[in-house]
Amino acid sequence: MKTPFYEDIILAGFGGQGIMFIGKLLIHGSMKEGKNVTWIPSYGPAMRGGTANCTVVISDEAIGSPVISSPHSLIVMNNPSLDAFEPRLKEGGVLVMNSSLITRKVKRKNITVIGVPANEIASEIGDKRAANMVMLGAYVAHTKTVSKEKILEGLTDLLGEKKRQLFEVNKKAFEKGMEFGKV
Amino acid sequence: MGKKTLMTGNEAIAEAAVQAGCRHFFGYPITPQSEIPEYLSKRFPEVGGCFLQAESEIASIYMVFGAAGAGARVMTSSSSPGISLMQEGISYISAAELPCVIVNVMRGGPGLGGIQPSQSDYFQATKGGGHGDYHVLVLAPSTVQEAADLMMEAFDLADKYRNPVMILGDGFLGQMIEPVEFKRRSSTDRPARDWTITGAKGRAQNVVKSLYLKPDVLEQHNLQLHRKYQKMIKNERRVETYLTEDAQVVIVAFGMAARIAKTAIKILREKDIKAGLVRPISLFPFPYQTLEKVAEKVDKLLVVEMNLGQMIEDVKLGVCGKAAVHFYGRVGGMVPSYDEIVAEVEKIVKKKR
Amino acid sequence: MKKVFERPKSMYPVSTHYCPGCGHGIVHRLIAEVIDELGILEKTVGVAPVGCSVLLYNYLNCDMYEAAHGRAPAIATGCKRVHPELVVFTYQGDGDLASIGTAEIIHAAARGEKISTFFINNAIYGMTGGQMAPTTLIGQKTTTSPFGRTSEEAGYPLRVSEILATLDGAAYVARVAVNDPKNVIRAKKAIKKAFETQMKGLGFSLVEVLSQCPTPWKMSPSEAVKWVEEKMMPYYPLGEFKSPKEEG
Fold first, then answer.
1. Rounded Cα gap, residues C223 and A23, in angstroms
2. Quick check: A39 contacting B, CB < 8 Å?
3. Residue A47, domain member (yes or no)
4. Does ipTM top 0.90?
5. Is residue A56 part of a domain?
6. How confident is the model over A118-143, as pLDDT tens digits?
7. Neighbours of chain C (3+ CB pairs under 8 A)
8. DSSP secondary structure of B174-241
9. Same domain, B49 and B155
10. CB contact under 8 A, B207 and C68
């Protein structure tokens, strides 16, 4: 019998870096693949500029706790987020970090680290705000949690008609990110 | 709809209300439930509903009183401090026997407390909350899907018993996103409501009230309410049992705490500790009988709550001394982790009774 | 034989529980007469307060709610939002409206809620036995201001009509009295105008009625009507504070 699929991940960064958005995109794509999903945010005032994080669980089976003590994967966009969540990452877990903004060395030895210069890449392709999609691309390519196609379908849904023009740049950012995540 | 969509618990609760035929909402913004009024202020104009942001939670609950008395399917939503303000009105609504749905997306207290998730309003919700001898029917969902399902049912139960029904969730349930499917309702018919305020045309006057100055008359009114609560106790107990058949230790938890406990149970079973779960879904009426049965087979229970021990009193009443009842809780917006629950169960298992 | 005086259809044939000389009975009757004259009994809904007039539904026979203390305007709002076609009024005393229920009345007026409020101001808490009200006059003795109300301790009496008239949502605001036949006739006109304002959908309407409360005032009925004129009216002047523009 195939072991049922299970993944949990914490995504963290500054408010405004689009960390909540890529978390939602991840569950959108995964749901389209028939998975059970949960997304739970840090919530409250001062989101913009403060640290924001969300926890995502993706599973073949019904999901118990949507709150995760030690996640299998971590996407961090800045130094405070690395400080907060690095100690909690599971042994052997995957850390995808934004090397454009993270200046310190990773302390843990028992994890896989993927550094992605997300801000530089996003600037190169013409939209600084797409750094989040670069990060998601690296994560998805490395972990194969969900297919690229379903992420792009999800992106279409989430952008909707109003932000349709943002699709191409976000897609490009995601694809660029994937190059960093390839094993 | 018949199709899975991703929604926050708050949005799902609001949409479920719309699908259940609710067309009147009165409320006041408070974190972490403001997405409910926000959603309905946008959604109601599409279906001809009335959304009104009141000047306070006190006014909100009396607008609910007025609309319920006028025969409408009506709701309000708030979070702990706001629900405290509403208690007077909930007592009046219960006394006047008006159907309505009240959503409490709980946050930490007492006082202004915090805005992070909590389950510390259990006593308030299940034991009356306001003055006088009354109960509201309390349902505690643990997933976004269940929140939507129970929300729809809540309106029918409110009509059936002419009583307020409370949906008791917490900040995480309100804020989290999960897939949800709005089940097609077989019937949206409501029971006859010949007591409502519609203008006394071709009939005698209707009065919606709660004053009974003569003690013997008030006693009769109290007894009639009591009979109604007995009917709820008989008909509306809801509980989920999970892996209790072979369990050596059983966790009792509701809402978010119960979900976390399920993950803990999985980990415990991998460690060869046979743990199970009793998850009360209706908190009033409380499923005492299920706990009584469980206590006949298991001699150790662990109650897990996001408070310092409230539901445990009901668990003890159900267990009635037949098993040891332990407690683990986190408060203030801190959420118990499955690791903590696992450690707690391991400790208990080692203990002699 | 021609009938010149009869009980309004909107009233039950019962006697009230009010003290001799109390103004409530007069105001009840005026409301009932206006309901009859406008032919709206079958679509009128009243909201009774907490206070002496809590049993209003025993005297008027339209559909009625009994509210919690101060909350009548919120209940009326809930009802009116469900049934905009009904004519909804609240009947409130000074403790109910001007003390515990200030938030509800101000916001109902500010929203321009299409309801009518009849506000009975007798400068005292009648039902609980004569305690100080928010409208108790400076110097007036009550059971909780036994040496006379002082502004240093208890502040100043509230002029509700003047306050509410400043709100854009309030379409008609008037203060009347029921201490003599001339004033009773004027009071009835104001009550009618309030209902008509609501029925035309013009906004919120309120009629404040200066009313006599002989028992807690420790006066005879005839002393009480004189007190309304001599003590209350100088502080609470009668008149229309806001009126919808005449059509045409």
1. 77
2. yes
3. yes
4. yes
5. yes
6. 999 999 999 999 999 999 999 999 99
7. B
8. HH-EEEE--PPPS-------TTS-S--SSSPPPEE-----SHHHHHHHHHHHHHHHHHHHHH---EEE
9. yes
10. no
